[in-house]
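Notebook entry, structure prediction.
Reason for the run: the old model in the group folder had no record of what sequence produced it. Starting over properly, with the input documented here first.
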Amino acid sequence: MYPHERSLVEEMKDKPFALIGVNSDQTIERAKKAIADNNLNWRSFQNKGNDGEISKDWAVQGWPTVVILDREMKIHYRGHDGEAATKVAEALVAKMTGGQEKK
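New structure, fully documented this time:
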């Protein structure tokens, strides 16, 4: 999954797009190690396990859960399919940029 996200962040780097991760590592040291070991190029917040505040607030039932939001925080996708989520994100960015996205 990480190679796909890394390439998506690169592809969208000059677009109105942000990928934000939430990790379930119990310690900040373990989270930082995972970020470094996997060469993650996006911001990641610590949830401290599967029952942390972020997963409770967002009603996360399984990992990974992908949520695509627009600038008004309206949810356009919520699920576990990275390819489907990418298509929704690309369509939203294309709409915001006047269709200038590559497919």
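Summary: The chain has one domain: 2-94.
The old model has been moved to the deprecated folder.
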